[in-house]
Amino acid sequence: MSTPMSSHTPSHTPSAETSPPTAAEQWADRADLLQNALSTEFGGRFGILFGSRSGSHHGGRLRNTAPLRLSQVAAFNYWWLAHAVEVRVDAAERSGSTGPLRAAQKTYAGIRSRNHGSLFNHYFDDMGWLGLAALRLFDALPTVAGEPGDRYLIDAQALWLHLVDRGWNDAGGPSLAWRTQQLDYKNAPSNGAFALLSARLFRRTRQQRYLDYAERALHFLETTLVDADTGLVADGLNRTGDHTLDLDWRFSYNQGLYIGALIEAFDRTAEPALIERALQTARTTIGTLAPSGVFTGENVSFDSHGGGDIGLFKGIFVRSLERLIEALAAVSGEGLRMPAGFLTVSTDLLWQNLTPPRFLANDTWTTPAAPTTFLATQLSAVLAVEARARFEARVADTR
């Protein structure tokens, strides 16, 4: 049963004796409220309690919908839950609390348990996301060999090796397939997540094979799926077996993955052209898919398809956009205005439509929650608010 959110008092509630909270404090509190809502509205009955700035959270087991829908009880969305692991690590990094890490570990263990004890499934993009989540846990936990953090690095490496062994081939150009049943179908989700996973494994291990594949996956994206004039990323190649590009499938998370892969390459090389290309893609994505300040469709009618995978897409883009803003600020600050403006406007609109005490999100951030909210949709909101909290904390640090 959900804990009433109204019983929790944000840690920065102003009083007559205190000044109003700063933007950094305000968005940190809002991120806590979203983390708490994720737990209380989606948490399973066997969750473990952990503390936060704004109250208590249930632990790692998460349902597919809020409120519970019997038709969704058995649904297992492996890659959604990988993002649930990541948002808990976001909370731990922001707050310094170990509670969110316990929830992240429990969610991660639950993925493996529900997957019959295995890390692997038939979708190579799914496994890339889980590898990235495992690396986040590795970074956040002790790294002494044999201790909790070390096993997550081992998992990430095992997932990476499985992707190379089972999914990497030369059809359509050296690249990673989408799933085991379509080894000649290559898309941005699989290759984008794989490029990120490879780059981050190289950063942590310095093993050359990871760098080689990071560069090869990014090369495939840039030479096959990215429009050189606009920077916009097509979804995939040869989905229908006729070697055509899915140019009309324009999704925000594909753009976010490409931006993220470029930033990883920039962090390695300090090559300015990489950041310029990332900024071009961000500008085109915002101008094309979110001219009003929020993503409102992405080729899908949310009246009939709300709550599916697409619910997560915009949060993934916003996470990458915040990383781009950080990189731009560190280099010169040029080009910051548009991406920073979009980040603030879109998350402001999102927050305005998150109604207390439940703080549930809609697929469209300018609209209050529908009667049923899917976990993917809520995770997208948590990703975005955590990104805004990081942005505001960094702005505060530069003043």
Automatic annotation (TrEMBL):
Pfam families: Glyco_hydro_76. The keyword Zinc-finger does not apply. InterPro entries: 6-hairpin_glycosidase_sf, Glyco_hydro_76, MUG_Protein, O_gly_hydro. This is Glycoside hydrolase. Keywords: Hydrolase. Gene3D superfamilies: 1.50.10.20. The keyword Transferase does not apply. Residues 1-25 are annotated as: Disordered. GO terms for molecular function: hydrolase activity. One of its GO terms (biological process) is carbohydrate metabolic process. It comes from the Bacteria.
